[in-house]
Each structure stands twice: as structure tokens, then as C-alpha cells.
Amino acid sequence: MTNLAIQAAKYVMIVLIILYTLSTFHYHRGHTHKRRNHSSGMQIFCIFALHLTGFLAIILYTGEAAMAVFYGAQVIFFILYLAFFRIFYKKASRLLINNTCMLLAISFIMLTRLNAPSAIRQFVVTVAAAAVAMVVPVIIKKTRYLWRFCWLYACIGIAALAAILAFGSTEYGANLSFSIGGLFSIQPSEFVKITFVFFVASMFQTSLSFKRVFVTTVAAALHVLILVASRDLGAALIFFISYLLMLFVATKSYLYLFGGALAGSAASVLAYQVFSHVRVRVQAWRDPMADPTGDGWQIIQSLFAIGSGGWLGVGLYQGMPETVPVIRSDFIFAGIAEEFGGIFAIALVLICLSCLLQFLWISTWMDGMFYKIIAFGLAAVYGAQVFLNIGGVIKFIPLTGVTLPFVSEGGSSIMSTFIIFGIIQGLYILKQDEVDRIEEEEKQLERRRSAVYAKRPGKGKESAGKPGERRRRDPSGRRAYQKSK
User: What mean pLDDT, rounded, does the chain reach?
Assistant: First the structure.
């Protein structure tokens, strides 16, 4: 009976995430508030229904009452998160809010299935991160001179990365994090991604001269080189891709784009020659079966998990995702594909893609160079991280050791992602305020024009000509208004 219920829950969750994904792209196509509100309402229904279905399967399988309490705490969090945005940020992007909740719901279900204590810790960090991110849109909206602190952003980022290089603890062969009191760790590179984007945007705000581009490139290269020296190659690749794309958007120079790509390719070849762990990852990517119990073990188990799940998955607790190393962080996508199926996994990718599209749309919508590059830079950071994570899991590219935003376990990752989404929401609200102000000015101008037309002499009166005849006049009143001016 339990297995039957879990299989039924699996199919229900697949249907719900398909409906959610369709509603997401229907929201993108919506040109009226009514259509977008309808799509948003469908999304919220799918979030809570999918979350409930997943935890019903977990509670039924484990038989633990504590799981019901944990589920209730998550529901309260989702309700408060949605309500706070409705109350304090009425002009925020509802699509990004709903996507955040859906990705978190999937994460909580999968992490609880894998390791309940870890899921509880992740939930506590998520609540704290959401509380911090609530303040970010206010800072973006109220602080008008963020572009003036360009070298402060650079100094903070370089100092944090250098501290990791010198004093950070080693994980999987790379200096990644600081341990604080032995209770939790912090990974500075997750937050330096944000200061890095602000630094580049600030530098390009005032000038795009060759000298300014050269100085900015040197500072950006210093970020990347410190990460390479720390052997955090995944983060280094995110920084490099983000800077190259921001430089191209700011200058619109294909010379910079192709020159940077060529330099990056040469640096990759050099890294392959210099760093042994890079050669190991590339060789494991090219032929994991050459060392199936050693270096190729991760990718082999990941591919086995994805393959055994098929299109429809095997259901919660019916697979063996525990056999995949670091399944809760770097390889959580493989566990989702195994137990929820390929259709569910593709829908998850499309939800991440919709977030990226919203980031890019906001970037094109912004007027100032500073805000435009910030939105585009954060879009590049987010898109690169999603691509590197999923691409490594499915063996499309070599493994880079980055997390899947909002889905993977990791306190620094969840905190930085919440801040990134908060910044984007702040930019969206800032632009909405500007649009509303322009519309109000246009309405006032139209009212003044109407008042001038209403005061025009002879309006609505019969001419002094022959009885029964009316004077011919311009129906729109445009000619009389131009003459009055």
C-alpha cells in the first residue's frame, strides 16, 4: 500500500510541475495584469500542492510525526514569504517570488528524503537568508550612489578571496571556506560574486575608455587568479564568464568578446598542464570507465542514477541516490532525476531558465548603465552556475564543484542566491516606480490639455452664421490647441 501511494504521489508531482512550468511561460507571455495574476495564482496552487504531495509520501514512508511538524513549519514560511512581498513590495516580480518558492519546495522534499537533520539545518538557514534578503530591495531603492564605491567592492572581494587562500580549510582539494566555531562554515566566494558584479558595473558607469577597461580587466583577473590558486576552479570560471559577458554588453565590442574567449581557452590549457586535479577531472569526464572505482566513480554513479530514473522516475525512497557522492550539494540534480524522473528534471531546468529570462528582461528594461550591467552581471552569474552544475552532473562538461541555486544544500549558496534575487527585485521595483511616475506625468499633461481645450472660445456654441448652421471645427480639437500654444 505504501509503495502504491508513493507511486501515485510521483505522478501527481510530475503533473503539478508540468502545470507550474506552463504557467511560468504563460506569465512571460502575459500582456495584461489579469493574465499574469491568473498565471501567478496557478503557480501558487502548484507550489503548495506539490509540496504537500511530497511530504505526504515522506510521512507515509517514514511514519515519523516530526516530519509533519517540519512540513507545517515550511508551509508557514512560504505563506509569510509570499505575504511579506505582497504587503511591503507590491511592485515586485511575482514570477521570481513564485520560482523561489517552487525551487525551495523541491529542495526541502529532496533533502528531507536524503537526510532529515541536514534538511532542518538548511531550512533554518533559508529562513535567515530570506529575512536578510527582505531588506535588500529597500537598499537598492533608497541608495542612489552605489556606483561610487567601485574600489571598495574590489578591495573587499580581493581581501576575502586572499584570506581564503591563506587561511581557508581544504575541501575536495580546494580552499573553499572558513569554519566558524566548528558549527558552520562560510564560503566567501559565494558573496564575492556579488561585490565583483558591483565593481565591474561601477567601473563601466563613468567611462568605457581603453584605460578604464584595462584597469578593470586587471582587477577582474586578480579575482580569478586568486581563485585558481585556491583551486576553486568552478568559482573562477563563473567570475571569468560573467566578466567577459559584462564587458561585451558594456562596450559592444566583439574584439573584447573573442579576445577574452581566446585568452580563456589558453588559460584552460595552461591549467590542465599545471594542476593535477584539473587533469583528473578532465580525464574522468572524457572516459569515466577508465577508473570506475576511483576518479570516475562520481560521474558514473550520477549517470546510473539519471538513467535508472527514466522519464517518470522510480518514486521517493525507491531509488539509491545515496550511492552518488556529495548528492546533497553538487549532485542533487541526479537524485531528483532518479526519483522524480527526467520530465520533472527538465521542468526544473525550465524553471531556472525562466528566472534567467526574467533577469535578462529586467537588464534590458533598465535605463542607466550601472543598473543595466548589474542586472546582466547577476544574470550571467546565475546562468553560469546553473549551467556548470547541471552540465557537470549529466557529463556535458567536466565537473566544477558548484551548487544548484536554491536547490542544493549549502548555507553560503542559499544566502548569496537570496541576496542576488533581492537585488534584482530592487531593480525591478525601482523601474516600476519610474514607469508609474512617467505615466502619472502623462496623465497630468493630458488633463492640462483637456482643460485648455475646454476653455477654447466658442466651444460647443453655434456660429453667428445662418440660422440652423453650426461652425465646422476640428473634431479632435488638436488644431485649436496648437493655435492656443
Answer: 88
Q: Which amino acid is at 109?
A: I
CA 85 to chain centroid, in Å, comes to 17
Query: Can you give the three-state secondary structure of 94-159, one letter per residue?
Result: HHHHHHHHHHHHHHHHHHHHHCHHHHHHHHHHHHHHHHHHCCHHHHHHHCCCHHHHHHHHHHHHHH
- pLDDT for position 33: 75
d(CA 381, CA 403): 12
381, 50 contact by CB (below 8 A): no
DSSP class of residue 181 equals T
Residues with Cβ within 8 Å of residue 301, at least 6 apart in sequence: 323, 324, 325, 334
Cite the beta strand spans of 284-352 per DSSP E. none
In the numeric block, which cell numbers belong to residue 277?
Answer: 586535479
- Asked whether the beta carbons of 452 and 459 are under 8 A apart, the reply is no
CA dist., res. 157 & res. 161, Å (int):
6
Element housing 12 (H / E): helix 2-29
* Best-predicted range by mean pLDDT (39-43, 440-444, 480-484): 39-43
**CA-to-CA distance for 259 and 207, rounded, in angstroms?**
21
Question: DSSP letter at 462?
Answer: P
DSSP letters along 202-232, please? HHHHH---HHHHHHHHHHHHHHHHHHHHTT-
**Secondary structure letter of residue 90 according to DSSP:** T
